[in-house]
Amino acid sequence: MSLPADAEALRSGLLAWFERARRELPWRERRTPYRVWVSEVMLQQTRVEVVVPYYQRFLARFPDIAALAAASEEQVLELWSGLGYYRRARNLLKGARFLAGRGADFPTAWKEALAVPGIGEYTAAAILSLAHGLPHAAVDGNIVRVLARLFGVKADPTKGPGKRRIRELAAALLDREQPGRWNEAMMELGALVCSKRPHCLLCPWRGSCVAARTGQQALLPALPARRARVDVIHGVAVIQRAGRLLLRRRGSNVRLARMWELPGCDLVAPVAGELRTGLAGVLAVAPATEPRWRCRHGITHHRIEVYGFDCQLQGEVPVGKDWRWETREVAGGLALTGIARKLLRLLGGRP
Ligand code: SF4
After folding, report:
1. What CATH number labels 230-347?
2. Checking phi first, is residue 46 left (phi over 0); if not, alpha (psi -120 to 50) or beta?
3. Ligand 1 mean position to 220 CA, how many Å?
4. Residue 31 has what pLDDT?
5. What is the CATH number of domain 7-214?
6. Is the pLDDT of residue 350 over 90?
7. Residue 238 CA to ligand 1 centre (angstroms)
8. Is the pLDDT of residue 351 over 70?
9. Ligand 1 atom nearest to CA at 217
10. Share of the chain above pLDDT 90, in %
11. Which residue out of 143, 145, 150, 208 has the highest number of ligand 1 atoms within 8 Å of its CB and is therefore the one to mutate?
12. Which residue is catalytic, options 24, 40, 168, 188?
């Protein structure tokens, strides 16, 4: 397919900009398929500055596929706790076990890469181009935004003709001599310049960009409407005994499966009686009249108002492997839910 602009000029302009603007990031050193893989998974839906310390801790503990494959899910979730979207961590572990079971490193063939559990087209293209120098164009949300604006693609880029068009443009624009560097430069432009509110004056493509020329930056890409926000009220029982907090592990077939949390439930209103009634099936508690801690938490389109109540435990002390009493220090090192981690911070424990 021919491009509606001078491809060579676009390529050299972007690569020269990247040479000047690229950030030093830990996953850009000592590049291996595994290091790229972990970084790409962590960076999905998450900002670079949040990912960096998690990435460094993760790589220090699990330096290669074999080390990760040998870990338990709980150990992996402990290091992922606070990063959110825990399915990513579980899939990463599944993928590592899949490869370790075959005694293999990350494949170089496209179809074999896609056969690794949890690897989709974007991640496969990123790993194969960045670590192996193979000519696959990576297309994630950032790159869709850049291409839709640069070429003025008005169709919805998430499906049908719009999606095909973006993929064709990405493939046609790809620098086949240095596909890894090219993909990285595209990602960097999407992150630093062609962001939601673009900085067109700093952009190497401002002279060729359809959106900049026609003032349509805010209209492109033409994404479908977001799901409506859902407001949730969540009550949490903060139960302390001899300097330790009562924690419970979530079930296996629920969201945030097997992660540790402070016992709690969704409420209609943040009142103590509701929390007592909501928890009655699992725990008998007497909450203080008013909540003492409050925070906000977001999960996908849910906006959760969290109310922590000081509670006295009544009746039986829960026992079993899904309950534990821990100091705030120790609790901070567990695979905690995001809400539990935020409350722990408010309580003065380790984040
Ligand atoms: S000129 Fe503006 S809208 Fe166009 S690619 Fe650059 S930053 Fe994005």
Report:
1. 3.90.79.10
2. beta
3. 10
4. 94
5. 1.10.340.30
6. no
7. 49
8. no
9. 3
10. 91
11. 150
12. 40
pLDDT digits (tens, 9 = 90+) for 5-45: 699 999 999 999 999 999 999 999 999 999 999 999 999 98
Strand partners for 306: 234, 295
Catalytic (active site) residue 40? yes
Q: Is there a shared CATH topology between the 7-214 domain and the 230-347 domain? A: no
Answer whether 150 contacts ligand 1 (Cβ < 6 A): yes
pLDDT, one tens digit per residue, over 79-122 is 999 999 999 999 999 999 999 989 878 999 999 999 999 999 99
Q: Is 155 left (phi over 0), alpha (psi -120 to 50) or beta?
A: beta
Query: Does the structure show a pLDDT above 80 at 211?
Result: yes
Inter-CA distances, 301 with 157, 231, 257, 333, Å: 21, 9, 19, 27
- Domains of the chain, by residue range, sit at 7-214, 230-347
Q: Return the biggest CA–CA distance within the chain.
A: 75
Q: What is the mean pLDDT of residues 174-190?
A: 97
The average pLDDT across 178-188 equals 97
Q: Is the peptide bond before 221 cis (omega within 30 degrees of 0)?
A: yes
> Average of pLDDT values for 114-143?
97
